[in-house]
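Inverse folding, one chain.
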């Protein structure tokens, strides 16, 4: 097998371990050459991500542990599509909420010349 050939591999255990931070992203897809971005995020009980709009990217969200609301009630196993341009807010339930987000990778920032 050619060593430059892409291969499937396990990246992490999707269950939040004791060494994970109390809140926020505890894993991010960081492999070079990727076409996707992905994050595993944990919100403690009652924690809230305020309403916002992602104007450019569709986001797929999978609840991996806990429950809460993302416009409507969600629980472990819920698969939520957040189309670009949609308003969304996320609130963790009584046991907290851990979820995976996946979306197309954003292009890197580019320096452009201003028109005269």
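Residues assigned per position:
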């Amino acid at each position: 097998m050619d060593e430059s050939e892409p291969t499937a591999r396990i990246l992490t255990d999707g269950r939040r371990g004791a060494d994970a931070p109390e809140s926020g992203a505890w894993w991010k897809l960081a492999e070079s050459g990727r076409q996707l971005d992905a994050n595993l995020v944990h919100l403690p009980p009652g924690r809230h991500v305020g309403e916002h709009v992602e104007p450019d990217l569709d986001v797929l969200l999978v609840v991996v542990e806990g429950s809460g609301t993302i416009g409507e009630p969600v629980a472990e196993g819920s698969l939520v599509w957040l189309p670009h341009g949609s308003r969304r807010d996320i609130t963790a339930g009584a046991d907290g909420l851990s979820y995976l987000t996946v979306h197309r990778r954003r292009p890197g920032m580019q320096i452009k010349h201003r028109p005269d």
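The mean pLDDT is 85. Residues 24-104 form a domain with the Jelly Rolls fold (CATH 2.60.120.10).
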